[in-house]
Amino acid sequence: MALILIRLTQPPYSNALTQDGVDFALAATNYGHDVKVLFEDLALLQLVKTASVKGLKNNSKRLASMPLFDIDDCYACKTSAEAIRLHESLQNTSVIDELDCKWLAASEKLALIKSADHVVTF
Asked: pLDDT at position 90, please?
């Protein structure tokens, strides 16, 4: 099947795109697609473990379920983290550890995008 790269760019709990991106990633595996997830820009804040927010699905728990859906390739944009000064604080967060996220430089991110059959941005 196809290799789909999901680019997450939205912070947690900011709008429906955050949940839609994770839902799309999980659903794509049900159809046999190979899914990779890239956290960029303010979506890096999704990698900080959060408590439940009343009325919303817990984003941290949903992300932690991705390996159960065979989403094993998760990446975090190092350039975005440095631009918003989050790199050091995200280095050892539990969500990054649970997802085994790999930090990518700009050139590595471009290579990842080029390797995908389809790229979907949320």
From this structure: 64
Chain segment 74-116, per-residue pLDDT in tens:
999 999 988 887 766 665 566 777 788 899 999 999 999 999 9
DSSP classification of residue 11 = P
Q: Nearest CA to 61 among 76, 49, 73, 44? A: 49
* Residue 99 · residue 105 · CB < 8 Å: no
User: Measured between alpha carbons, how far is 20 from 6 in angstroms, rounded to an integer?
Assistant: 11
Q: Are 44 and 18 a contacting pair, CB within 8 Å? A: no
Is residue 20 classed as helix, strand or coil in its secondary structure? helix
> What is the CA 21 to chain-centroid distance, rounded?
8
